Task: inverse folding
């Protein structure tokens, strides 16, 4: 092997990031394996590569009395084997380095928004081309009812990146609450700049999302900024999510106020907080009871997830009747009225 080979290795190191010493170590191992395969057992043998001349030798250590000697046992045609092995080793090392670099790039992008094009779709998985790599959109990360036809352009959330023998396995999501956050960062400059903070998101993908926002600037209305002029900003996000409904509400440190806001679009008249049980009793007008509960309990379920409180809902008439009954019972027992 000539010195030109070492020059080529140094050039590969500069261009591909493949360390020359790592290639030489891998080459030594591969050459010794090739030597054993062709010429039989190679006890006490090793491969030596001169890093100045590029010369390769097979050296065997023998014992002469009490003295150990190194003897060169390089076969005549070993240069051809070395050239073929070197080609395979370099190719493999370049592939491994490129895989590592690709893994690091996407591993550092977990939580980012990416745009890709659907390449393949079946019952098992959907492949989305992100440019440098094909990402996997598993069934559990797909929105029920969404159709991922070949060639469709998708915005997705990078949920996870895993190492595999074929390079990084990038897992993307259309259901993750983080997708909603990233889309609002894209559409609302105040969110991107950190003036408005998205505090909490509760989502039932494909149906409804509740998002609580707060402003670091008292002059900026967080809800109004996210909705945009005539709803233009939220409409862009809703469109990307295939008309998924989005309720944007003001976050509050006061649990009662936060729960009250979370019941949107229903208007709560009163919220009674029970700190020890982590429960909130919400009183709503009679004509808004069904709206507060939502279809199949969706509205109150999302409100509970958003706020972290277990929420019970009662209409005004129901609450009034129960209070009257409670007071009447206490009066009959001769106990206190409250």
Result:
């Amino acid at each position: 092997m000539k010195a030109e080979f070492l020059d080529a290795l140094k050039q590969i190191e500069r261009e591909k990031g493949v360390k020359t010493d790592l290639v030489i170590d891998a080459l030594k191992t591969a050459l010794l394996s090739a030597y054993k395969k062709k010429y039989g057992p190679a006890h006490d043998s090793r491969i030596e590569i001169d890093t100045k001349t590029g010369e390769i030798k097979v050296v065997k250590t023998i014992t002469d009395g009490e003295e150990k000697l190194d003897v060169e046992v390089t076969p005549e045609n070993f240069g051809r084997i070395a050239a073929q092995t070197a080609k395979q080793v370099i190719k493999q090392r370049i592939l491994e380095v490129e895989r590592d670099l690709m893994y690091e790039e996407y591993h550092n992008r977990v939580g980012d928004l990416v745009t890709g094009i659907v390449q393949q779709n079946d019952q098992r998985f959907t492949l989305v081309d992100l440019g440098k790599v094909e990402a996997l959109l598993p069934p559990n990360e797909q929105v029920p009812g969404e159709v991922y036809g070949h060639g469709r352009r998708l915005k997705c959330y990078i949920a996870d990146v895993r190492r595999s023998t074929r390079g990084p396995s990038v897992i993307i999501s259309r259901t993750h609450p983080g997708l909603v956050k990233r889309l609002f960062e894209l559409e609302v400059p105040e969110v991107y700049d950190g003036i408005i903070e998205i505090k909490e998101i509760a989502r039932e993908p494909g149906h409804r999302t509740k998002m609580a926002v707060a402003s670091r600037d008292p002059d900026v209305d967080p809800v109004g900024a996210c909705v945009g002029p005539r709803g233009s900003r939220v409409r862009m996000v809703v469109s990307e999510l295939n008309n998924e409904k989005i309720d944007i509400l003001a976050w509050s440190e006061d649990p009662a106020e936060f729960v009250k806001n979370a019941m949107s679009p229903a208007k709560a008249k009163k919220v009674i907080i029970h700190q020890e049980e982590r429960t909130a009793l919400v009183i709503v007008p009679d004509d808004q009871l069904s709206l507060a509960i939502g279809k199949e309990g969706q509205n109150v379920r999302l409100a509970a997830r958003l706020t972290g409180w277990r929420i019970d809902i009662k209409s005004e008439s129901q609450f009034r009747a129960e209070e009257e009954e409670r007071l009447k019972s206490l009066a009959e027992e001769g106990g206190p009225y409250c």
In short: The chain has four domains: 3-107, 113-173, 176-251, 254-338. The radius of gyration is 34 Å. The first helix runs from residue 3 to 16.
